[in-house]
Amino acid sequence: MADPKEAFVTVCECRTLVRRAGTGQPVLFLHGAGGLPGWQPFLARLSERYDVLAPDHPGYGQSDSPRWLEEVADLGQFYLEFLKAFDLTGVHLIGHSLGGWIALEMATRSTARIGSLTAMSSAGIRVKNLGPPDIFAMDPDELVRTLYHDRVLTEQQLNTPPTPEQLATITRNRTTSARLGWNPRFFNPKLRKWLRKIDVPTHIIWGDQDKIFAPAYATELQNEIPGAQVTIIPDTGHMLHVEKADAVADAVVAFASR
Amino acid sequence: MQVLNFHLFPYPPLPDEVYAKSAWVTLSNAHYDEKVGHATYNLYLDQLELCDQLGFDGVAVNEHHQTPYCIMPSPIVTAAALARRTKGKIAILGSAFCLRDHPLTLAEEHAMIDNITGGRLITGFVRGIGAEYSNFGVNPTYSQERHLEAHDLVVQAWTRPGPFPFEGKHYHFEYVNVWPRPYQKPHPPIWIPSQGSSETIVWAAHPDRKYLYMQNFNPYSAAVKYLNEYRQVAKEQYGYEAQSSQLGWAAPCYVAETDEQAMNEAREAIEFLFNKTLKMPVGMFFPPGYTSIESMKRVVAGKQSIMGAGRNVENLNKQGVIIVGSPETVRRRILEAHRELGFSTFMTLLQFGSLSADKTDKNIRLFAKEVLPALQDVDDRNYEGMRTAAE
């Protein structure tokens, strides 16, 4: 597999890191609240068939923290500008968790450049009485155990303490996530009413053991987005594309190449 | 110096296991008993009234939310209950204006108390502790911004003839026109209680403000560092000599006949305060953005998951977080601190944690008789001036 090219682009006055690899139709992958630690196997798999772009969101990883960044809707607006800046059309938009929320914000604003939408373990709406646990109050170990279902991966994470550089990034990512998702906790109460206007093929992928957003969220999103299709990945937690990279990539490809 | 007695209104002890995970945010109010509450509120109000009668310059109250650490979510209610039954100052240390979406309601209430008491109110501006950003759903990454903006809003509401619009980032009101205006002019004294923060000192010491900075319940070394820092910032950054009236120090005290007896009598109550009622997950104490990225890194790195454990009365006393001993010892330690730091205000806490009604009564009376007069006697003539590094 080819290493991705990393380059900084400036969109909306924000210097943004973009990783890119592969050829074919464009895929924009939007990472979750924990950030994107690097080119993951899931992205490598997709880059075998697609031109995959995986940026660090403004406020995360190596991208700048722009002054305008106050809510997830700002990131939705930003990524519409991003697609324009790269002149991408027919984009397969894939978002995980917080990234799923960003993708939904984009798709409710404009699908002109979007070919399909994939929301994985997505934030953005609230299912009553099924709010996410308080990830900000958790200690680092408890957070890992909540995010992952796979025991081997969990142990691996617990036994790999972050380097000082990683720690700085984790801390900054966490602060940005709090700014975007503290209250209402990881959802936009004004988003749900517009989901029915999404007019591109939509795929909802969930781990059946997700302890952040229960699988009931997948059903709820399916009910709101016309024609949405749901794929449930068995024995998988919130970090489904990390835990089951091949299965999730297969599901993405099968849907996108219909 | 002036001496105030502070009260936290702690709820009486519950079974140990109740505090195991957290005494804040998630400790269920199913454990609250209204009969205990009724008795406790009235006991504590009596204790503060007693301090007023025994010659303290004032009493001070505090605000915390959804915790048995402090069953005083509204210090306004306490201050109102005290207003007509006391003669001395009433310090609200502090009010978390910035936790409110409408800080003007607090501005109005403070102004009412200032009018009822004929200008005996002191107002404290605080951000609230980290956990309270969970209670109120206020975004902690805006804590500092909201704090500063709420301050500007309230001070303008108190000083500028209304109506006028306030056009801030977090607060926007078309009509600011608070009735009543405060009794004191330009407004009640503003004190800034802090656990120690250079940022706060630079803000409080600004010539437009010159607010009293109160170093709160920390090791004595922190008082030395931050009170001297205030004087330095005033001189080097702003070009004026800070007055001692701009500085305060706070420490819980327990006085008994001998040092040993004092330690023994205070032990259980103080250890309950520090080890049980301050317990909470670290991530809750330091929500993201509430403190600097540097402090946050330590939190994220830390495997320590619970605050508040393993403190004992000996260490706390040695560090000067608390002052426990015979009248002679307690008097000497506060006077020595005053000689070294020259603060104008000492705020003590004579009921703490699970300290019983009897012991608190004894503590208040002994402190008032044997310690208080000596403290009220000293002023700037007893301050030896700031030591430079060479000395």
Structure description:
The complex is a heterodimer of chains A (258) and B (391). Chain A is α/β, with parallel strands linked by helices and 258 residues long. In chain A, 36% of the residues lie in helices and 19% in strands. An 8-stranded mixed beta sheet of chain A has the order 1-2-4-3-5-6-7-8, with helices on both faces. In chain A, helix 1 (41-47) runs parallel beside helix 9 (245-256) and helix 2 (72-85) crosses helix 3. The longest helix of chain A is centred in the last third of the chain and has 18 residues, at 164-181. Chain A starts with a strand and ends with a helix. Chain B has 391 residues and is α/β, with parallel strands linked by helices. The mean pLDDT of chain B is 94. Chain B is built from 13 helices and 13 strands. The A-B interface holds A 134, 136-142, 161-162, 167-168, 170-172, 174-175, 177-179, 182-184 and B 25, 133-134, 137-142, 281-284, 287-289, 293, 296-297, 300-305.
